[in-house]
Amino acid sequence: MDGLLNRRVLVLNQNYQPLTITKTKRAVALFMDKKVEILEKYNEKIHSINFSLNLPSVIRLTKYINYHPKAIPLTRKNLLRRDSYICQYCAVKNKPMTLDHIIPKQRGGKETWENLVAACTSCNHKKNNRTPKESNMPLLRKPKKPSMLTYFQQSVRKKQDAWKPYLFMEQLKN
After folding, report:
1. Which of 73, 78, 57, 70 shows the shortest CA–CA distance to 12?
2. pLDDT at 47
3. In which residue ranges of the chain is pLDDT below 70?
4. 38, 43, 99, 164: which sits with the fewest CB atoms below 10 Å from its CB?
5. What angle do CA 172, 51, 12 make, to 5 degrees?
6. Facing residues of 23 across strands?
7. Euclidean distance between CA atoms 99 and 76, whole angstroms
8. Mind listing the domains of the chain with CATH numbers?
9. Cβ 81 vs Cβ 39: under 8 Å
10. Cα–Cα distance measured from residue 37 to residue 153, given in angstroms and rounded to the nearest whole number
11. Which residues pair with 9 in a beta bridge?
């Protein structure tokens, strides 16, 4: 039962703007307080003496809130996630990844979304303390800071297929 209450739920503002991802336990509490409506449900149910409820998958606030999401923190996990765990020099996947500074730290390179990329250990050693141009190792794509929408889209797993229309990943079904 505890695992069911920790399932992820997409939270939308009243205008359907994605706000955050919460746990089922919090989503059910918001529903019971009549603060949200359930738009999409998982197949599993929770039961009490008085009611039975399909677990919510997507909920929408009943009142609009003025909310400005925080920036996605620059962490190793988030950076590898942005680059889909693919080396940005040789496109290899399923290998241990490191983080590479495009402009090396010793040459003034900062720890920013635009200066860090995922790299396999071979490419990182080959590039060494040089720029991609100096090492003749062009990047697959120019790195940039991910948006919150991209972050939500990357959070979708198989059980969260119902989230896709709300995250502009497919059209809503009529």
Report:
1. 57
2. 87
3. 1-2, 171-174
4. 43
5. 30
6. 8
7. 7
8. 2-69+148-167 (no CATH), 76-127 (1.10.30.50)
9. no
10. 22
11. 22
